[in-house]
Amino acid sequence: MKDxxxxxxxxxxxxxxxxxxxxxxxxxxxxxxxxxVENIVPxxxxxxxxxxxxxxxxxxxxxxxxxxxxxxxxxxxxxxxxGERVIDVIHRAGGLTENADESQxxxxxxxxxxxxxxxxxxxxAVINVPAGTTVNPSNTGGGIGKEAKVNxxxxxxxxLQNLPGIGPxxxxxxxxxxxTSGPFKSIEDLKNISGIGDKTFEKLKDxxxxx
Length: 211
Hints:
This protein is 38% helix and 18% strand. By secondary structure, the chain is of the alpha/beta class.
């Protein structure tokens, strides 16, 4: 055996060198692969961190109070969100009674804060009430009537001019007063407006409200 190895030592040495070279090459390739993987993973993590996180801002709807009266199952004051419609609030009030006159109600109207939703009975005469007014049901004679009061804290100039003794200049003065001094705290504050004295106020006091 020793003689054979001696005679073929050159071939043995070459074979061993080739084997070592192969092992060395394999180990280097393995290290390179591991290094590549280690480099890729942190890079992917970094890229994920670099991606801006987009968060949708969820805005809570503004809550308002609405007074529901008339021919509904559960009349009362209800808390609802800005933008809902009359039909939504009526459902919360238990729906309409059998005596309700649906033909006189705009169910698609958007509700507003401090709004009065009045559902009339069948055969009840109802006047058209513009935005910015409050409806107060009252018993009159043999039937049921309603008196529309203009909310001087919400009505615009056009609506204010529907009041007796209030023309364009006084209507403008009322809206200007609200903007500079804030809302009226009592209906008597209307006499702070230039041109509105006791006589004019007497004509207005039963037709206006601040709520």
